[in-house]
Amino acid sequence: MLLLAFDTATPAVTVAVHDGHRVLAQAATVDARRQGELLATFIEKVLADAGASRADLTAVAVGVGPGPYTGLRAGLVTARVLGSALGIGVHGVCTLDVIARDAAAAAGGRPFLVATDARRREVYWAHYSPAGERLSGPGVAAPAALPAGLPVAGAGPATYPGVLGEAIEPGYPSAATLATMAAERLPAAGRLLPPEPLYLRRPDAREPGPPKRVLPVPAGPGQGGEPRRGARGRGEPGRGARGRGELGRGEPGRGEPGRGEPGRGEPGRGEPGRGEPGRGELGRGEPARPGVSPP
After folding, report:
1. Does a structural domain hold residue 108?
2. Residue 167 · residue 92 · CB < 8 Å
3. Is 237 part of a structural domain of the chain?
4. pLDDT at 293 over 80
5. What is the pTM for the complete model shown?
6. Residue at 137 is within a domain
């Protein structure tokens, strides 16, 4: 057997190789912003340290959370791709159980909790027996809602100081412990989980809804007069009775003041222009005869 194990459900990136008897190599760091990049690098490193290659692997074990969506997805996608490419089995282990396995000794024979940061002012948590067997959970809740008076492993106490109980080690999961647990459980395949994420709640990302309306809904015809005056910029309501009304039909705008008597009436063609002064006695009367010789 050559088992590759890793976990990215917390800010820690941890990878190990196990031969079925012991851990051959491991690497770990805490860097939530580079989980995908560091995971690939660490896989190559531990395989090289163990003197093996990907082709030598017989199984993959991966922490399935619970954990934030982005980090958890990086580990699970990598595990599935490796399993598919190499034609080997991929198995899941609860991340909180891995932490609990190492925390049992620090609990000193007491029941304890494991709590990791779930963001949104909440923690992922589970309740364990003194031997590290899970009694309840995993779940997600506000730190103040967890059972009081119990020691707590995981990053929860450091993230919410003074809210949870006594902090005990470890703060993050170890791929070496994950590999050991998976190697112990592989003969009884039913004790391992499928490589599916334990999200416990929906991811932060949401499908966008319909766009919000930023303009008022225009009123239909006959649904009020005064409110329609606010739409002058669109035409009809702003050019209503004033723009096309009486002015457009003649009386106020183009009526008598524009083309009536002042423009073509008596002043332009009446008596002063062609009346008696132009064709009266001067044209056919006596004043013209004194200068004419008698017949």
Report:
1. yes
2. no
3. no
4. no
5. 0.69
6. yes
Three-class DSSP labels, the chain: CCEEEEECCCCEEEEEEECCCCEEEEEEEECCCCHHHHHHHHHHHHHHHCCCCHHHCCEEEEECCCCCHHHHHHHHHHHHHHHHHHCCEEEEECHHHHHHHHHHHHHCCCCEEEEEEEECCEEEEEEECCCCCEEEEEEEECHHHCCCCCCEECCHHHHCCCCCCCECCCCCCCHHHHHHHHHHHCCCHHHCECCCCCCCCCCCCCCCCCCCCCCCCCCCCCCCCHHHHHHHHHCHHHHCHHHHCHHHHCCCCCCHHHHCHHHHCHHHHCHHHHCHHHHCHHHHCHHHCCCCCCC
| Token digits of residue 275 | 């009346």
Residue 279 lies in a domain: no
In the numeric block, which tokens belong to residue 208? 């966008």
Over residues 4-50, the pLDDT tens digits come to 999 999 999 999 999 999 999 999 999 988 998 999 999 999 999 99
pLDDT digits (tens, 9 = 90+) for 142-184: 999 999 999 999 999 999 999 999 999 999 999 999 999 999 9
Tokens at 110, concatenated:
């007491």
- For residue 49, what are the CA distances in angstroms to 22, 30, 214, 276? 14, 20, 61, 131
pLDDT in tens, 64-78: 999 999 899 999 999
Q: Which burial class, exposed, middle or buried, applies to 146 when counting CB atoms under 10 A from its CB (0-12, 13-18, 19+)?
A: buried
Residue for token digits 């194990």? Answer: 5
Q: How far is Cα 19 from Cα 25, in angstroms, rounded to an integer?
A: 10
Tokens 């009446």 belong to: 270
* Tokens matching residue 28: 């770990």
Domain boundaries, position 72: 3-191
Please tell me the total count of domains within the chain: 1
CATH of the domain at 70: 3.30.420.40
